[in-house]
Design goal:
- This protein is α+β, with helices and mostly antiparallel strands.
- The protein has 18 helices and 32 strands.
- Strands 19-17-18-21-20-22-26-23 form an 8-stranded mixed sheet, with helices on both faces. Strands 5-6-9-15-11-12 form a 6-stranded antiparallel sheet, with no helix packed on it. The protein has a 5-stranded mixed sheet with strand order 7-8-10-14-13, with no helix packed on it.
- 40% of the residues are buried.
Length: 798
């Protein structure tokens, strides 16, 4: 299907934010892979079978890794992976990533593969980690986990790890590819970015009519809940209608969205290191200010050079400056084999490119922030099929303290960009995206900040993520100083002080709290969060997740949802989320969330002394602050509060019943009484009189109804809800001298005629005991007070 152009504002292009690039093609021996010659991880082997077939195993494509293959039998093959920087002086021991294709298998064949030389990954496979596969050609390009668990995994002599898995070929597909986890190659990332830069440069781009995976999953879940059996065939069945209009679409206009891709620099092998700018294009003209060079980077970005820069900013031009907006910085794939990080970043980009008319959250993000994204920090390692290191065998995530242009150019340019925006006072958030093999779940590594308030703000953002994505495990997050300095034996004792989040924090003189490392397990987590319902969305946001449940296996869509949660937490942090879930969460507002975190860390060593003054500050702010729930959800106090109030008043269901005043029941002028009677009046308990109202509206006099040993109990008007009752001798009612009848519980409903129709006394004297003579005269039939009491629906039994 060809692209379309709309007629508005110089013809913005209609593009597909969910467009997927084709898989990297297989090249012939001697060809270039990812712009460079094939490496030791790229190989191809063909084996003949007894029935005359030829089975070919190949890794001659971008991000492929299969150093060697052997035929054990017609349906059993052994595969060896290549270590990072293999056959060089920098060769490492990292051997976990594998990615190869199989051609020549027939429908119904079951083939067994044994990966012979992986690193020990017992922490993954003991929780049923399964490799992924896809068929080529595939219209949807979907990677899925194997339908059955791996056959076996074991540690051999020399700490060599063997994994054996089977696969049954259900179709006559010409090629099937297998990988350690959901792959995302350097080739695919470039294809994806080129598609978007063409659309935002005004060129027509292809569109797709395939269902969006996230919407398809919601429809399938709705069908299963309705009781349908088996897979849902979207072509034969009409899709299940969702709660509201969907927030996503395969046809989005570029109008109002600013997207610009620039060549930041080159890697050691000469591959591209791009930086993406996404924000709102409102107010941008040809004369708007542009960004300049940063420490000599962007050397190829020159006017007219389309290969170096394209998008909303024009061909060969630097991006516009947007100096009034804060900068949010994301980076990924410093470790090449950590592919879940690429899908988290894909989820971030997809959400930012949503139609703002369908999803105002995307528009709010673009209106308030500038997003700077480096999709791949280690393009050489990704293209060569490495797991953790670059071409020199270096773990680049330990080089952020003192990176060099000569040996760590990608890290040097990334840190230079982050510090450039920090020096301008515009840096809002820095997050480096990773994956984890041993620790389960999705979690964040943060820093132990100097100062209690900075630490609370540091943890607050992560707390807000937990109400926007069900995958993040807050209890698994780590904000300790020990985790900032620990050393890894795999990296020759290199300290985590060289990681991105710690080095950026120290480079800002320990003043920037929002510096994080996001980690996603390749396989699964311990549990999923309970997600509250969104406000004001009319069913258009993702549905709430009720209850804490066992965690299913992660999919590429799950990783993308984590990226979306990172963006929504940013809106909640600034109080500008139009569909916030915060107010229906356990914390209700930012102040309560901060207070909860304060209680969590106030007794930790570094913050004990500061916590004493901070508690007083919280109490003082709470006393003087006026609460406004409408402002907290990000509504404009000048215009939208009036509209919200009018909406509330127009809906009688939202109006709470007003309290029934009893002022008219009390005498306005107290008659003169003797000193003795006055003393008795002071000692007498307060008067609480029954006032009837419909059972659907409970008056203020009945603020708390509980079940006690003597039946139904009623609180006094002066007692606040939830306040413990004051002890009174021989009575369970606030009316002096009145006891409750022994009526069975099934006859008393939750309101039970306001709890007043079952009141009784044994005698008239007992009814008025404890009252002064003046009070008795007022309450007796014909008295000033008794004459004004509305008659209750029930009958008082004496």
């Amino acid at each position: 299907m060809s692209g379309e152009k709309s007629d508005a504002n110089n013809g913005p292009v209609i593009f597909d934010p969910y467009w997927k690039p084709p898989l990297p093609p297989i090249v012939e021996s001697g060809g270039k892979i990812g712009g460079a010659p094939a490496g030791p991880a790229n190989s191809s082997y063909t084996f003949a079978t007894e029935d005359g077939r030829k089975i070919t195993l190949s890794s001659m494509f971008c991000s492929g890794n299969m150093a060697k293959a052997e035929q054990h039998s017609d349906n059993h093959y052994h595969v060896w992976t290549a270590p990072d920087a293999a056959n060089t002086q920098f060769q490492t021991g990292y051997r976990t990533w594998f990615h190869f294709s199989v051609r020549g298998a027939r429908k119904g064949n079951t083939i067994k593969f044994t990966v012979m030389n992986m690193n020990k990954q017992t922490g993954l496979f003991q929780f049923d980690h399964r490799p992924v596969f896809t068929s080529v050609p595939s219209s949807r390009k979907v990677w899925t986990r194997l339908p059955v668990p791996v056959s076996s995994f074991q540690v051999q002599e020399g700490n060599i790890f063997e994994v054996e898995f089977k696969h049954t070929f259900v179709n006559d597909d010409p090629e099937v590819r297998f990988a350690f986890c959901f792959p995302y190659s350097y080739h695919e990332v470039n294809e994806r970015l080129e598609y978007l830069e063409k659309a935002f440069s005004g060129e027509e781009v292809p569109l797709s009519d395939e269902p969006i995976p996230s919407v398809l999953a919601l429809q399938k879940a709705a069908a299963e809940k309705a009781g349908s059996v088996g897979e849902m065939d979207m072509k034969k069945q009409p899709p299940k209608k969702l709660r509201g209009s969907t927030t996503v679409s395969r046809k989005v206009s570029t109008e109002g969205i600013y997207y610009h891709r620039e060549l930041l620099g080159r890697s050691l092998d000469g591959r591209r290191v791009d930086i993406i700018t996404i924000t709102s294009s409102e107010g941008i003209t040809s004369r708007s200010e542009r960004e300049g060079p940063v420490e000599g980077y962007f050397p190829e970005v020159n006017p007219g050079n389309r290969a170096a820069a394209r998008g909303s900013g024009g061909d060969g031009c630097r991006a516009h400056a947007f100096k009034s907006k804060k900068v949010v910085f994301f980076s990924a794939r410093v470790h090449p084999g950590e592919t879940p990080a690429q899908y988290v970043l894909e989820g971030i980009i997809r959400f930012l490119l949503r139609d703002g008319r369908r999803d105002p959250r995307a528009a709010a993000l673009r209106d308030n922030f500038v997003f700077k994204i480096i999709p791949i920090l280690n393009p050489d390692g990704v293209s060569r099929g490495h797991y953790r290191a670059d071409t020199r065998g270096v773990n680049l995530n330990r080089m952020y303290q003192t990176p060099t242009r000569q040996f760590e150019p990608t890290i040097h340019m990334s840190k230079a960009m982050v510090m450039h925006y920090f020096a301008q006072g515009r840096l809002q958030l820095y997050m480096d995206l990773h994956a984890h093999a041993s620790k389960r779940g999705v979690f964040i590594y943060g820093n132990r900040c100097d100062g209690l308030e900075n630490q609370i703000e540091n943890m607050l953002y992560v707390r807000l993520m937990t109400i926007n994505t069900k995958w993040l495990d807050f209890d698994a997050c780590n904000f300790s100083e020990k985790n900032m300095k620990s050393k890894d034996r795999r990296d020759d004792g290199a300290s985590k002080e060289g990681s991105g989040r710690v080095a950026i924090y120290h480079a800002t003189n320990n003043t920037f709290p929002h510096s994080y490392t996001l980690e996603c397990n390749y396989n699964t987590g311990r549990s999923i969060n309970s997600i509250p319902e969104a406000m004001n969305d009319r069913g258009r946001a993702s549905p709430p997740q009720n209850g804490r449940q066992a965690c299913p296996k992660y999919t590429d869509e799950a990783f993308m949802d984590v990226g979306q949660g990172a963006l929504l937490a940013l809106l909640d942090l600034k109080g500008i989320n139009p569909w916030s879930r915060l107010h229906r969460s356990l914390w209700h507002n930012l102040d309560q969330a901060r207070n909860g975190l304060f209680k969590r860390i106030r007794h930790s060593g570094p913050y004990r002394e500061e916590a004493k003054t901070y508690a007083d500050k919280l109490a003082k702010n709470k006393k003087h602050k006026k609460k406004s729930s409408l402002e907290e959800v990000g509504k404009d106090p000048a215009e939208k509060i009036k509209k919200a109030r009018a909406t509330k008043l127009s809906n009688p269901k939202k109006l709470k019943p007003k309290a029934v005043s009893q002022d008219h029941l009390r005498p306005k002028v107290r008659p003169k009484v003797s000193a003795l009677e006055m003393k008795r009046d002071v000692d007498a308990p307060p008067i609480s009189l029954p006032v009837y109202c419909p059972p659907s509206k409970i008056p203020a006099a009945v603020t708390n109804i509980t079940w006690g040993s003597q039946g139904l109990g009623i609180a006094s008007p002066n007692q606040q809800p939830g306040e413990p009752k004051k002890a009174k001798p021989k009575t369970s009612s606030s009316i002096p001298g009145i006891k409750l009848s022994s009526v069975s519980a099934d006859r008393l409903g939750p309101r039970a005629y306001n709890g007043l129709s079952y009141l009784h006394t044994s005698s008239e004297d007992e009814l008025y005991s404890g009252l002064s003579q003046k009070q008795v005269s007022l309450m007796r039939p014909g008295g000033r007070i008794a004459s004004k009491i509305p008659k209750p629906s029930g009958v008082l039994r004496r």
